[in-house]
């Protein structure tokens, strides 16, 4: 299973401002988000991200699988949404059983950190927005790792936003 992380960051590496309001994201970030979700048809997110997007802005409509990490999993009537407290490896098994071969993690920091700690992320997209947050939400939480990466692509998405695409090197 190929796991892709797609995250927007401030120029100083924060993934949210102090207010927790995503008012700093460019339309180009959103376009990339929609494109990757519809490419993979499997999307992994934390509960906060789900609450921001649901119900109108969830990236998959009546297709694929959206996995929402929560400590309070509940049975859900929408068959393409799985609320789970399972580990990253178990989530990958669930997705493979549902026929997926790749998935994108769209945030936030705990979800990304758990998959990173487990060494399960293959590609990382960073969409660097032209903002600085002295106080905000750091990219990783409760994690202690150091990985090397290869830069596969850099793209200017608009006059101010840059996208960096990396491959994680674990060896
Ligand atoms: N920059 C970006 O691209 C980007 C993308 C997405 C989000 N964000 C930011 O990140 C913030 C947090 O988003 P998020 O809540 O989706 O991120 P997260 O940090 O990945 O997930 C936090 C949620 O995960 C659940 N959780 C925590 N520990 C768990 C465990 N051991 N097992 C299972 N579930 C666990 C909790 O849900 P319960 O309380 O339900 O247990 C918690 O609310 C957002 O508000 C947003 O500001 C930024």
Number of strands: 10
Subunit organisation of the chains: single chain
Distance between the termini: 18 Å
Order of helices and strands: EEHEHEEHEHEEEE
Question: For the CA atoms, what is the radius of gyration?
Answer: 15 Å
Number of helices: 4
Q: Give the bound compounds.
A: NADP nicotinamide-adenine-dinucleotide phosphate
Q: Quote the average pLDDT.
A: 96
User: Low-confidence parts, pLDDT < 50 over ≥5 residues?
Assistant: none
Question: Structural class, from secondary structure content?
Answer: alpha/beta
| Beta-strand content estimate | 25-35%
Describe the structure.
The relative contact order is 0.26. With 171 residues, this protein is of the alpha/beta class. The two termini are 18 Å apart. 23% of the residues lie in helices and 33% in strands. Bound molecules: NADP nicotinamide-adenine-dinucleotide phosphate. NADP nicotinamide-adenine-dinucleotide phosphate (NAP) binds next to strand 1, strand 2, strand 3, helix 2 and helix 4.
Helices and strands in order, then pairings?
Blueprint: E1 2-9, E2 14-17, H1 27-40, E3 42-46, H2 47-53, E4 65-69, E5 81-84, H3 88-97, E6 102-105, H4 109-117, E7 123-128, E8 136-138, E9 148-156, E10 162-169
Parallel strand pairs: 1-6, 1-7, 3-4, 3-6, 4-5
Antiparallel strand pairs: 2-8, 7-10, 9-10
This protein binds NADP nicotinamide-adenine-dinucleotide phosphate (NAP).
NADP nicotinamide-adenine-dinucleotide phosphate is lined by residues 7-8, 15-16, 20, 45-49, 69-72, 85, 106-111, 137.
């Amino acid at each position: 299973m190929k796991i892709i992380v797609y995250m927007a960051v401030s120029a100083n590496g924060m993934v949210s401002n102090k207010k927790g309001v995503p008012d700093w994201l460019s339309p180009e970030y959103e376009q990339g988000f929609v494109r990757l979700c519809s490419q993979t048809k499997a999307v992994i997110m934390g509960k906060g991200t789900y609450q921001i997007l649901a119900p109108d802005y969830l990236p998959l409509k009546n297709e694929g699988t959206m996995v929402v990490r929560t400590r309070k999993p509940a049975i859900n009537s929408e068959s393409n949404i799985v609320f789970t407290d399972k580990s990253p490896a178990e989530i990958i098994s669930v997705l493979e059983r549902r026929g997926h071969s790749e998935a994108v993690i769209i945030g936030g920091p705990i979800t990304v950190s758990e998959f990173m700690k487990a060494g399960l992320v293959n590609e990382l997209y960073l969409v660097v927005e032209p903002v600085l947050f002295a106080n905000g939400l750091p990219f990783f939480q409760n994690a202690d790792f150091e990985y090397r990466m290869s830069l596969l692509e850099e793209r200017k998405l608009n006059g101010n936003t840059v996208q960096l695409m990396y491959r994680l090197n674990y060896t």
